[in-house]
Specification:
This protein is of the alpha/beta class. It has a single domain (8-256), classed as Vaccinia Virus protein VP39 (Rossmann fold), CATH 3.40.50.150. It has helices spanning 8-12, 15-26, 48-54, 67-75, 111-119, 139-151, 166-173, 198-203, 209-212, 217-234; strands at 37-40, 60-64, 81-84, 96-102, 122-133, 177-190, 243-256. Strands 3-2-1-4-5-7-6 form a seven-stranded mixed beta sheet. β1, α3 and β2 form a beta-alpha-beta unit. The radius of gyration is 19 Å and the shape is globular. The termini are far apart.
C-alpha cells in the first residue's frame, strides 16, 4: 500500500525515545577510514548533531525518501547536503566510510539481499551501522494486524516486518568483514495523552500509518477506537497515568574487511 508523506511534528513528539537507540548505536561505531558519512533514512535529521559532533571534519550527507522530513533535516544545517531518494535503490557516488541507518531499513524488504548490497558500498575498513525495531510480535504491532483483519477483512494487510534476529545478520554479513550484533529491550515510559492511548500516540506516526492509509474518516475513527481499546488491555496505565511500553530493537555493526 502506498502511504502519504511522513509527519515530522508527530514523529518528533517522542524524539528522546527515538534518539536514544541511535546514540547507543553511534557509541559502538569503531574508528573509520577516510571517506564520507551517510545518514541513510535520515528522517528529520534528529541524529545529525551527534554525527557532526563525532565526525566534525567529515562530509555528512542525509538521504531520505520524505520531502517533508528532509525539509526539516535541512533546517538543522548539519548535513553538507540532503538527498531525496528511495533508500531501497540509492547508491553513493564513491565508497563510504560509514553508512549509519537508524530505524529506517525495517521499512525495506529482503534483508538477505539488502544488507550485503549496502556492505558493498563501503570503503575498505568502512562501517555499516544499523538499528531497527523488532516489534512485530509485541501487542503494539500485532494488534494493528488483528484489528485491521477484524474490521476490514477484505482489505490486504501490509507486509510483515522483514527484520531478522540479531544472529541472522551476523551470519549474513560475516563474509564481508567483522560483525557485532545485539538486541536491546527498552522499557519506555509513555506519558498520558489528551486523546486515546499513549502507545497509539507512539505508533500512529510509524507502524500504524499503512493500516489506516486510504480509509475514510469514519473507517479510521472505528479503527482507532478499536485499537485504543485493545491497547488499554495490553498496556494498562499506572496510577500516575503513564504506561510502560517495552520496545525491542536490533543492532549490528559491520566493519568491512
Amino acid at each position: 500500500m502506498a502511504v502519504a508523506d511522513w509527519d515530522p511534528a508527530g514523529y518528533g513528539a517522542f524524539r528522546d525515545l527515538r534518539l536514544r537507540p541511535a546514540l547507543d548505536l553511534l557509541a559502538q561505531v569503531p574508528d573509520l577510514p577516510s571517506g564520507d558519512v551517510v545518514d541513510l533514512g535520515c528522517g528529520d535529521g534528529a541524529v545529525a548533531p551527534a554525527l557532526v559532533a563525532r565526525y566534525p571534519t567529515r562530509t555528512l550527507v542525509g538521504v531520505d525518501g520524505s520531502e517533508a522530513m528532509l525539509a526539516n533535516a535541512a533546517l538543522r544545517r548539519a548535513y553538507e547536503r540532503v538527498t531525496l531518494a528511495d533508500i531501497a535503490d540509492w547508491r553513493p557516488e564513491r565508497p563510504l566510510a560509514l553508512i549509519f541507518s537508524n530505524a529506517a531499513l525495517n521499512w525495506l524488504p529482503d534483508h538477505a539481499a539488502l544488507m550485503p548490497r549496502l556492505a558493498g558500498m563501503l570503503a575498505k575498513g568502512g562501517v555499516l551501522a544499523v538499528q531497527m525495531p523488532r516489534q512485530g510480535e509485541a501487542p503494539s504491532h500485532r494488534l494493528l494486524r488483528e484489528v485491521s483483519a477484524r474490521l476490514f477483512p477484505a482489505r490486504a494487510l501490509p507486509a510483515e516486518s522483514p527484520v531478522l534476529e540479531a544472529g541472522d545478520y551476523v551470519q549474513l554479513l560475516l563474509p564481508h568483514g567483522e560483525v557485532r550484533a545485539w538486541t536491546t529491550d527498552y522499557l519506555q515510559m509513555l506519558d498520558p495523552v489528551t486523546r486515546g492511548h499513549p502507545v497509539r500516540a507512539f505508533t500512529e506516526t510509524t507502524a500504524m500509518r499503512p493500516f489506516v492509509e486510504g480509509l475514510t474518516p469514519a473507517e479510521r475513527a472505528a479503527f482507532v477506537a478499536a485499537y485504543d481499546l485493545e491497547l488499554a488491555r495490553a498496556y494498562p496505565a499506572l496510577p500516575d497515568g503513564r504506561v510502560i511500553f517495552p520496545f525491542t530493537r536490533v543492532f549490528f555493526i559491520l566493519e568491512r574487511s
